[in-house]
Amino acid sequence: MFAIMEKELLAPGIHRLEVLAPLVASKAKAGNFVMVRVHSGGERIPFTIAGNNPKAGTIMLVVQEAGKSTKAIGALQAGDTLLDVVGPLGTPTHIEPVKSLVGVCGGIGVAPTLPLLKAFRAKGTEIVTIMGARNKDLFILRDEVEAVSDEVIYVTDDGSFGAQGLVTDALTQLLEEGRKFDQAIAIGPARMMQATCKVTEYYGVPTIVSLNAIMVDGTGMCGACRVTVGGETKFTCVEGPDFDGHKVDFEELILRQAFYREEERGGENCQCHSS
């Protein structure tokens, strides 16, 4: 059993949990995730390790209520427990020292983006972050992102905060102004990542994406999370979740994400990834 030490409501239906998991906290690196099960009858759900505190033995998870299991987690309070927290899983992101980086994140995608920004910042990288959301109330972890960024650009669909438009609009504007970036990170909904990668490929900016493929076990045994990258089949859970965004077959990924759409709408089988 893994105790929830703290819980915070970040936005409607989005929660930050500090979970006591000393062994995971001591080994976690940027890009890792955990598989969580709330009780014996629950499904296994992958969540990015959005932060870890080895001294306290805790990891930070960001949970968005989207189906039966994530709603069950959202109903828990500090002092309650999770049945399983398995990890750290996945391949840690290779952090290559670069002078400048642009991070592009949409919605809850800021959760897996944050540890990558911290890791690049620790290498001395200058960081510009573009954060997008449907409206101002859905921005999360703003203070944490601002703390590791030289500049943060906010974009909303309805114009209620920052500029109105898409994250790709803000990114294109920066690049057309002549801003130079050695690396880009794009994490969020698949269509957002796909659109961002089209922009960065056009301008020749290498781009890391974190894929939110359906996962069942998280150890490479089931094959449910397979994606095509550079014409080769990859297992997101063991070879990812981070890949070269310019090589990902996003159309295939989007089709596979929709495989359990009817079950998700019924709230019985929500396959939710943290990005």
Distance between the termini: 25 Å
CATH architecture field of the largest domain:
3-Layer(aba) Sandwich
Shape: globular
* Low-confidence parts: 267-275
Q: For the residues shown, what is the average pLDDT? A: 90
Strand order of the largest sheet: 12-11-10-9-13-14-17
CATH homologous superfamily identity of the largest domain: Nucleotide-binding domain of ferredoxin-NADP reductase (FNR) module
CATH topology title of the largest domain: Rossmann fold
Helix/strand structural class: alpha/beta
Rg over CA atoms, rounded to whole Å, is: 18 Å
* Beta-strand content: 25-35%
Helix content: 25-40%
For the sheet with most strands, the description reads:
7 strands, mixed
- For the record, the CATH class of the largest domain is Alpha Beta
Q: What is the helix tally?
A: 9
Strand and helix order? EEHEEEEHEEEHEHEEHEHEEEHEHH
